[in-house]
Specification:
Structural class: alpha/beta
Largest sheet: 6 strands, mixed
CATH superfamily of the largest domain: Methylglyoxal synthase-like domain
Radius of gyration: 30 Å
Number of helices: 19
Strand content: 15-25%
Number of domains: 3
Helix content: 25-40%
Shape: elongated
């Protein structure tokens, strides 16, 4: 289908002038609206303004511009139906073969902190989506362009095909166009249904519309009999797992991505050089130190058995010394994540063909919501942004923790945030010593964490313990004290807090409350 006449109506004018020049150079007649027409005319291009084309002026402060039979008739007429072509010929309506539209900046408008409802309403585009949908519906006769990134490729295809665009190209553009309008309408619906009675936006919309782009179809899900795919937020935040770039290795599996996300979210919370090893969504070894090699050695010590076949994440550049340390341990890893690797480190890893190596930005940012699918519904919550600081601690025991203990307590609580509940984490000297995760009772998690440390040959004497939620009974405190711990960090808030504090005092433990729970299910 050869492009003879194109209509351009653009809010975002990036690349518009070059695109219009390219169309004009191939003999395409240009129609345009308002500001776009002025841009093209000022550049010396021949352009017909839509008001002159339809013989009808712009009405209602610009609310009515392109809503006219001469526009939509020229777009929607089926070129393969003689009666359609006869009808538009009888009414003097030429065909419009290409429609290039992007929409009023609704998302950008409502993102402003001082936006009013009136401002938002005026930035709801009407004519633009109508033209986009009309063009996409009639893709067999019309090319619809909504993405400036497509301009160069479309001009190149037209130049190679005597001004024509292939049917496959038009269909691909139509699919993209329907996604474009669907997400535009979703943004409007989400924002409007989030307004309270005073027209102030609240965190949760009454009617939630979600949009994601498929990155790839995965080999299978959690198990081989399950189908799976990985979808990315259309605007993934810097530092999120969706921004990964794979340097080598097999394609990622469903479990790889889930565990890599857990490792990355944990490691990027630390300022000091850190290493996190994750197995089945739980950290099995976490450490900080003066450099990544030392952090790795300490993290691996925590649970070398579980570390086999795990996911490993670093918050700094991986060099040959780090790789050499892993090789010396004969550490088999499924995925390695880091913000960067040296060229020499990449060469050392190249022989490990099955190792997936990912690089991604180290940015400590959060999405607005976390989502979990349940039967027939969806759970939404704001992310757990709380990272405990020394000023958050309230000493509730007779014994006050030393400065060194405070630092280990803060580290332990930061780790516990990423361990499945019920979570108990023994730590000391900037490393995990024993991790108890996902148990139905907190005392069982405590016993498991202590047992893990003992199995690894790690001495718990003088260690500290983090609990992601309060101790409902004193039994957990009795177990950790017997294992050798000397300080405990927990949120507090139990009906039996006094009993638990008394147990800490009885054992000579320092105990601090944070006031913030870190359940993770």
């Amino acid at each position: 289908m050869k492009i003879r006449q194109a209509l351009l109506s653009l809010s975002n004018k990036n690349g518009a002038l070059d695109f219009a020049k390219g169309l004009a150079a191939q003999g395409v007649q240009l129609l345009s609206t308002g500001g776009t027409a002025k841009l093209l005319r000022d550049a010396g291009l021949s352009v017909i303004e839509v008001g002159d084309y339809t013989g009808f002026p712009v009405l209602l402060d610009g609310r009515v511009k392109t809503l006219h039979p001469k526009v939509h008739g020229g777009i929607l007429a089926r070129r393969d139906l003689p009666e359609h072509m006869d009808t538009i010929a009888r009414h003097g309506i030429p065909t419009i073969d290409l429609v290039c539209v992007n929409l009023y900046p609704f998302r950008e408008t409502v993102a402003k902190p001082d936006v009013t409802l009136a401002d938002a309403i005026e930035n709801i585009d009407i004519g633009g989506p109508a033209m986009v949908r009309s063009s996409a519906k009639n893709y067999e006769g019309v090319a619809v362009v909504t993405d400036p990134e497509d301009y160069p490729a479309l001009l190149a295809e037209m130049a190679a095909n005597d001004g024509a665009l292939r049917l496959a190209t038009r269909f691909a553009l139509a699919k993209k166009a329907f996604v474009h309008t669907a997400r535009y309408d979703a943004a409007i619906a989400n924002w409007l249904t989030s307004l309270d009675d005073a027209n102030q936006p609240q965190p949760f919309a009454e009617h939630l519309q979600l949009a994601f782009d498929r990155v790839e179809t995965l080999r299978y899900g959690e198990n081989p009999h399950q189908h799976a795919a990985f979808y990315r937020d259309p605007t993934p935040l810097p530092g999120s797992i969706a921004n990964y770039r794979q340097l080598q290795g097999k394609e990622l599996s469903y479990n790889n991505i889930a565990d890599a996300d857990a490792a990355w979210e944990c490691v990027k919370t630390f300022d000091a050089p850190a290493c996190v090893i994750v197995k089945h969504a739980n950290p099995c070894g976490v450490a900080v130190d003066a450099d990544l090699v030392a952090a790795y050695e300490k993290a691996f010590q925590t649970d070398s058995t579980s570390a086999f076949g795990g996911i490993i994440a670093f918050n700094g550049t991986v060099d040959v010394d780090v790789v050499a340390a892993m090789n010396a341990r004969k550490h088999f890893v499924e995925v390695l994540l880091a913000p960067a690797l040296t060229d020499a480190a990449r060469e050392m890893l190249a022989s490990k063909q099955n190792l997936r190596v990912l690089v991604l930005p180290l940015a400590r940012v959060y999405h607005a919501f976390e989502m979990k699918r349940v039967g027939g519904g969806l759970l939404l919550q704001t992310p757990d942004r709380f990272n405990v600081q020394a000023t958050d601690l309230r000493v509730v025991s007779k014994r006050t923790p030393t400065e060194a203990q405070v630092q280990d307590l803060l580290f332990a609580y930061r780790v516990a945030k990423f361990v499945k509940s019920n979570a108990i984490v023994f730590c000391g000297r900037g490393m995990t010593l024993g991790v108890g995760a996902g148990q139905m009772s907190r005392v069982d998690s405590t016993r498991i964490a202590a047992s893990k440390a003992q199995n690894a040959g790690l001495d718990l004497a003088g260690s500290v313990v983090a609990s992601d939620a309060f101790f409902p009974f004193r039994d957990g405190v009795d177990v950790l004290a017997a294992a050798g711990a000397t300080a405990v960090i927990q949120p507090g808030g139990s009906m039996r807090d006094e009993e638990v504090i008394a147990a800490a005092d009885e054992h000579g433990l320092a105990m601090v409350f944070t006031g913030a729970r870190h359940f993770r299910h």
